[in-house]
């Protein structure tokens, strides 16, 4: 059964570290509860503002540059995500539509690659390559 | 795969989400699970006719239930002997002030639907049904799987799958099984039957993943999904959390348990980097919840009067699975704890196979002599006569004790008993290796 990441974008509120008011929080909890009871929710996590994090840039093979947050200039900031497992993209979309959100918030729904997507031949090769790395 | 219209795909998705709740609610209205399932199917057909043109309604579950209820009224109207029931149902619907119109706001509360779902679980898994009937009916009414999907999952024909479901429904009707969830001690007893169904589904999928059959839908995931649904319905039951924990941890090893040729890899030889660590984390969390629920029941539950002193069999098995999951490598395994858990599991199951597992753990924790002593008591048991793993384990322990000649005859005996040719070759090779070692130690 495929897994999906549902990505919640950040905004100025989330970037300011403002925690949603209790009633919104309760609504979201009830929604997550519904997902849990249906057996589709694997995890749901919220991310702290980018000011609490950092980026690492790989300049070349050796040099790495650490850039402290915030990175509000980035177009797409992630404020949280759900990992869901359901029978199809359609099913996940139906679940996502029930989220207690409004005001133009746009969630991204992205299926995960599974081992099976690569087929048995690829798996064998991949394992072989991994094995060589280990030796 | 056949091209499906977007609308049909959406309806199928909604069906997967809502089927259990729709069937459960209709079963309470009609008191008949078989009839409820048919009414729900009628509602699905109605959706397939109407939604592609009119769009998916705002509350699709409510829509399906309302259509099913209407069909129930029609059905009872037709059935002369059930006139009285029509009166009741008709009044109930008319009291909404809407006649037979669908009033989405007058639908059952979530809590009421949860109660119905619980009744559905216990009815579909009723012990009056055979295990395979319970499995088919549960996947159908609780998992929302279609008959072809069930057939594909169990490698049976569609007509066989359909027959299983029809027969299961008839058995429930003939036995006069009431659509109810049992309480107290009766619930605990019946819960075993429910958990058994879920674990059977899981094991069917687990056995299949060793093969290369890409067509079989993920029964392990289906079982996990059902398990999570049960957790939502019975959050106070330690064994329900424990079963989910056990399945999560076992399933986390899926990609490590076969080698590139599809041959099984033993637990201790598995590459633990290939274990799904996020799934293990979920499993350990579920186990922690099982511990909490058990503790709460052990020192708090005075209403039911029976305080458990010992965790259930799934709880112990989950704890065993967790022991391996917590060890970053095979050497770090806490064999003493594993031996202790097997000891407690033997007390409950009285299973010689579990006792053999305990012997292996004792052999690791306290040395091969102690392990061998545990197996000595099993040698005479009739139940173990044809079981090749007993001499195989004894052979292992004897090799570690340097008793190669005895080890050799154990391996040969194991080779005789196994039905698997590859395993036989392996055991004979080990027997031959014993010869070489014996010769070496003599010279």
Write a structural description:
The complex is a heterodimer of chains A (135) and B (443). Chain A has a single domain, classed as 2-Layer Sandwich (Alpha-Beta Plaits). By secondary structure, chain A is of the alpha+beta class. Chain A has helices at 12-15, 22-37, 89-97, 119-134; strands at 3-9, 41-46, 54-58, 64-68, 78-85, 108-111. Chain B has 19 helices and no strands. The longest helix of chain B is centred in the first third of the chain and has 25 residues, at 6-30. The model of chain B is unreliable at 95-101 and 210-215 (pLDDT under 50). Chains A and B meet through helix 2, strand 2, helix 3 and helix 4 of A and helix 1 and helix 10 of B.
Total of DSSP H or I helical runs spanning 4+ residues of chain B: 19
Helix percentage range of chain B: over 70%
N-C termini distance of chain A: 34 Å
Major pleated sheet of chain B: none
Q: Quick one: how many beta strands of chain B?
A: 0
Note poorly predicted spans of chain B.
95-101, 210-215
User: How many beta-strand elements of chain A?
Assistant: 6
Element order of chain B: H for helix, E for strand = HHHHHHHHHHHHHHHHHHH
Please state the CA-atom Rg of chain B, rounded to the nearest Å.
Answer: 26 Å
Structural class of chain B: mainly alpha
Mean pLDDT of chain A: 87
């Amino acid at each position: 059964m495929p897994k999906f990441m549902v990505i919640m974008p950040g905004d100025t509120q989330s970037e300011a570290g403002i925690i949603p008011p209790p009633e919104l929080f309760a609504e979201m909890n009830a929604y997550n509860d519904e997902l849990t009871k249906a057996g589709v929710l694997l995890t749901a996590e919220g991310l702290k503002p980018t000011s609490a994090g950092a980026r690492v840039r790989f300049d070349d093979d050796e040099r790495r540059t650490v850039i402290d947050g915030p990175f509000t200039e980035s177009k797409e900031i992630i404020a949280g995500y759900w990992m869901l497992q359901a029978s199809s993209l359609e099913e996940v979309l139906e679940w996502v539509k029930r989220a207690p959100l409004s005001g133009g918030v746009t969630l991204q729904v992205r299926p995960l690659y599974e081992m099976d997507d690569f087929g048995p031949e690829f798996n064998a090769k991949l394992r072989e390559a991994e094995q060589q790395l280990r030796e | 795969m056949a091209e499906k219209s977007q609308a049909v795909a959406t309806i199928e998705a909604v069906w997967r989400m809502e089927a259990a709740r729709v069937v459960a609610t209709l079963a309470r209205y009609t008191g008949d699970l078989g009839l409820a399932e048919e009414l729900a199917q009628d509602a699905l057909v109605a959706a397939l006719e109407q939604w592609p043109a009119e769009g998916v309604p705002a509350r699709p579950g409510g829509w399906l239930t309302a259509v099913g209820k209407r069909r129930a009224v029609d059905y009872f109207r037709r059935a002369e002997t059930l006139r009285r029931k029509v009166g009741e149902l008709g009044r109930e619907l008319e009291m909404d002030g809407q006649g037979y119109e669908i009033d989405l706001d007058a639908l059952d509360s979530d809590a009421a639907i949860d109660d119905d779902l619980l009744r559905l679980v216990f009815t579909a898994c009723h012990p009056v049904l055979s295990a395979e009937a319970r499995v088919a009916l549960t996947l159908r009414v609780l998992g929302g799987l279609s008959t072809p999907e069930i057939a594909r999952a169990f490698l049976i024909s569609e007509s066989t799958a359909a027959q299983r479901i029809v027969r299961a429904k008839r058995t429930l009707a003939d036995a006069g099984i009431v659509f109810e969830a049992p309480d107290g001690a009766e619930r605990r007893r019946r819960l075993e039957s429910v958990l058994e169904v879920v674990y059977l589904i899981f094991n069917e999928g687990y056995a299949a993943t060793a093969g290369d059959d890409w067509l079989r839908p993920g029964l392990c995931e289906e079982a996990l999904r059902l398990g999570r649904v049960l957790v939502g319905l019975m959050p106070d039951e330690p064994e329900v959390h424990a079963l989910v924990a056990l399945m999560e941890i076992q399933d986390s090893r899926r990609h490590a348990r076969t080698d590139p040729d599809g041959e099984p890899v033993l637990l201790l030889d598995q590459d633990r980097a290939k274990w799904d660590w996020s799934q293990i984390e979920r499993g350990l969390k579920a186990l922690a919840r099982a511990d909490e629920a058990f503790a709460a029941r052990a020192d708090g539950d005075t209403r039911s009067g029976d305080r458990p002193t010992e965790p259930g069999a799934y709880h112990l098995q989950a704890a065993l699975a967790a022991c391996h999951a917590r060890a970053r490598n095979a050497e770090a395994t806490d064999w003493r704890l594993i031996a202790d858990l097997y000891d407690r599991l033997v007390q409950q199951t009285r299973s010689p196979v579990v006792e053999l597992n305990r012997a292996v753990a004792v052999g690791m924790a306290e040395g091969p002599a102690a392990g061998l002593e545990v197996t000595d008591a099993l040698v005479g048991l009739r139940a173990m006569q044809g079981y090749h793993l007993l001499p195989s384990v004894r052979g292992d322990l004897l090799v570690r004790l340097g008793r190669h000649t005895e080890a050799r005859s154990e391996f040969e005996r194991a080779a005789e008993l196994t039905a698997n040719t590859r395993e036989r070759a392996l055991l004979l090779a080990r027997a031959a290796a014993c010869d070489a070692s014996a010769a070496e130690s003599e010279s």
